[in-house]
Write a structure and sequence with these properties.
Helix content of chain B: under 10%
Number of helices of chain A: 0
Order of helices and strands of chain A: EEEEEEEEEEE
Number of strands of chain A: 11
Structural class of chain B: mainly beta
Largest sheet of chain B: 6 strands, mixed
Oligomer: heterodimer
Number of helices of chain B: 0
């Protein structure tokens, strides 16, 4: 059983470029969550998606950030016109249902560096 | 204000020794509390999950306790090993909510 797969593991972008982060959930999981972790800080909720639906994007900046979880393929977190403050580790987690505590699984993260 | 506070921020222990990490939370109403281990450059991995009715739960050399009345939890590591060097994160989920509240973590360094 593969866990949550995130790619790329490391991503370097220049200011103003776009960053695309991918997350393939555990097979059979239809709930995906994205988190951001800044150095020395805890993970912060960004967005919660189910297949083809955004359930809660209250933790995601309203500008430049977007997320999707299409019927086929991985979930994508897109950051347009990146700025240095976007540099962080972005983690994806998946679960079998919205309160699937015991199946809640994190990926290894994508470390975004904006130069 | 963060609803999950952890202490200490970091600690260094010698291999073979024990240590205890603390977590205080204000999330209410409360559903469950989890402890995760996060190795450098990796995602968090679940160690234990406890509901309000559970006082203690073990996973190998890791033992978590929970006092839902005082809203406190601890994680005890017994006979530490070098591989225990990691960040340990306390995570709380409120009732009727899928969102998780994360502590900032305690960084444990085990030295030979």
């Amino acid at each position: 059983n593969a866990g949550v797969m995130q790619n790329p593991r490391h991503l370097v972008r220049r200011r103003g470029q776009e960053a695309r982060l991918r997350c393939s959930p555990v097979k059979g999981h239809s709930h995906v969550y994205w988190y951001r972790q800044l150095p020395e800080e805890g993970l912060k909720f960004m967005v919660y998606l189910q297949k083809e639906n955004i359930i809660d994007e209250s933790g995601m900046p309203k500008e430049r950030f977007s997320a999707e979880f299409p019927k086929e393929g991985p979930s994508i977190l897109r950051i347009q016109q990146v700025v240095r403050g976007d540099s962080a580790a972005y983690f994806c987690a998946s679960s079998p249902w919205d309160r699937g505590d015991y199946g809640y699984t994190f990926g290894s993260g994508t470390r975004l560096t904006v130069v | 204000k963060n609803q999950v506070e952890q202490s200490p921020q970091s600690l260094i222990i010698l291999e073979g020794k024990n240590c205890t990490l603390q977590c205080n939370y204000t999330v209410s109403p409360f559903s469950n509390l989890r402890w995760y281990k996060q190795d450098t450059g990796r995602g968090p991995v679940s160690l234990t999950i406890m509901t309000f009715s559970e006082n203690t739960k073990s996973n190998g050399r890791y033992t978590a306790t929970l006092d839902a009345d005082t809203k406190q939890s601890s994680l005890h590591i017994t006979a530490s090993q070098l591989s225990d060097s990691a960040s340990y994160i306390c995570v709380v989920r409120g009732s009727n909510d899928y969102k998780l509240s994360f502590g900032a973590g305690t960084t444990v360094t085990v030295r030979a």
